[in-house]
Amino acid sequence: MQAVGLAGGASSTAIWSVRFDGFTGTVAFDATTGQREEIVYSLVTKTYAAYRLLITWSRNSSAFNPVIRNFNPTETKAVILPSPLRAVTVCMAAAPTCSETEALNAMVYVFLLQNRKSSSVQGATTFIPLVLDTGLSGVQGLVSLIPVARSCSVFVGPGRDRVALALTPVVNQFAITQLDYNTAEELFSDRVLYPYFSRSTPTNAFNYRIYGEVCAYFAWERVVIVGFDDQFGRARVESMQKSMRQRNIHVERAHMVPTADKEGLVSTMETIYKKDIARIIILLLPFYDDAAKMFFNLFTEFSYMNQYIFFLSNELCQYAASHPAERNKAQSSFCVFPYVLPKQLETINKEAAQSGLYKEQARILLQGGFAAEVDRCNLTTIRSGDAFAIDAAYTVIDSVNRAVNAGVNLNRSANLLSYVRATSLDGLTGNFSIDKTGNRDVASFGFDIQMINRTLYLGRWNSRQSPSFRFTATEPIVWMTGSKEVPADTFRDIQFILGTTVSASPGTIVLSVLGFVGTIAVFAFCYRHYKLQKLVELSLQSNCVPVTEEEMRRLRGAHALKPEV
């Protein structure tokens, strides 16, 4: 009524233009919508009345965000207990392969176990695992993620660079805090293009250092690199070349496989067999399931494959861990994996077996579309290859607990980002930190080699130690040659090496030979001149022929000194 009176009538335009001090404070209206502005709400109780406010909520204009004032946080926390219904939805994504489903299963177990441990704690946060199938290319991932994106407090995964690239527009649109456990490409360190991306695995620039260390340990001085011909493959090759240069190891050639099929891979391998000298091949191929199986079948189809020593890519090693019979075809192949103390790995598997949570884990995976993987994959064992995924789960739990203690609103996913990027904890792989750019700092890696029907653990690489790589195997390696002697970095004979070198660069060889011949000729000429000088000098001296100092200097080729004045 006071507003109508001041406006001089019931005209809405006139009423919206008034401003006065009313019973609830300053009264004003939005000129466009007519909504009340400059309003203040207060939280009061019997003890904390209007003259002793706990919390106020105010907004001066619809164009600005509301302001919440907590006048006494300590008293507020004592009066208002935490909600027993507080929960965080953890959206976890992966492709439907055994190795990736095993990682999902391990993370689901960690969250369910955390819920059980905190069930008796009042106000504890409940973690709700929500599993999403990304498919092999990411298209299925878009279909799975878009409907639930708003409900994701944090998005863990997807574990593949190409799928992560496909899902980035959705992640950015909904401002979802993302934590990946397997994508190591440096491309995702760009905070402009990927503002919400963090990871619990180090980048390839760090991971690839172990390859150079191992090659240096076995005194292998030349290698061949095989990558996939796309932006991620080229970035991998560049990182590996840098690692090799740091250890003074020559990269003879880097081959790029054009397609992820048998034709493309066989063509590359035949080119290597026909032209390249090196025996050591570093594979950086993102091959999963069918493509990985195709690669290992080449060892039975082409006999020359057994003459090479392969460093398998992370993806091939993950497949090999779930299919040991396939890797057995690739004798003397190397795999790198996250290092976990054997006792820790044994303990977590023992606890998982005794927890009784497997049925609930399987139910969550079935709901997420992983029914086939639950049937055909071994999900009862946690492997060292799942360690970075478990570290991601620990990071989420730790970040949420710190955010809750700081009074952060968990309904907005982006609020967790700064806490994820300030992580410092002792995970399954040891102590690590995630910095403000979202990258993990360090990790330790184990290293093994395939021998007949088994693998042999060779040692551990730890950047915090000196030397970084420590060979700990006590039994000798039986190489694919059947010998216990370390093979040379080539199996080629001298004719092949010379033929390959000359055919590869005949102009360089010709110039080198001419330069060598010219150098020898100069040395021969100088030597003959010196010898002739000595003979003449000795002959003159033995015959007592008087020779002046000036003539002797001229004979020796020196300039005559001017006569003293």
TrEMBL record:
Q: Where in the cell is it found?
A: Membrane
Give TM segment ranges.
Answer: 509-527
Which positions fall inside the Receptor ligand binding region domain?
A: 119-441
Q: How does it sit in the membrane?
A: Multi-pass membrane protein
Tell me if Transmembrane is a UniProt keyword of this record. Answer: yes
Q: Cross-referenced Gene3D superfamilies, in alphabetical order?
A: 3.40.50.2300
- Report whether Cell membrane shows up as a keyword of the record: no
Where is it found, in Gene Ontology cellular component terms? G protein-coupled receptor heterodimeric complex
The terms under GO molecular function for this entry are: G protein-coupled GABA receptor activity
Q: Which UniProt keywords apply?
A: G-protein coupled receptor, Glycoprotein, Membrane, Receptor, Transducer, Transmembrane, Transmembrane helix
InterPro entries assigned? ANF_lig-bd_rcpt, GPCR3_GABA-B, GPCR_3, Peripla_BP_I
In its UniProt record, which GO terms are filed under biological process? gamma-aminobutyric acid signaling pathway
Any Pfam family the entry gives: ANF_receptor
This chain belongs to the protein called Receptor ligand binding region domain-containing protein
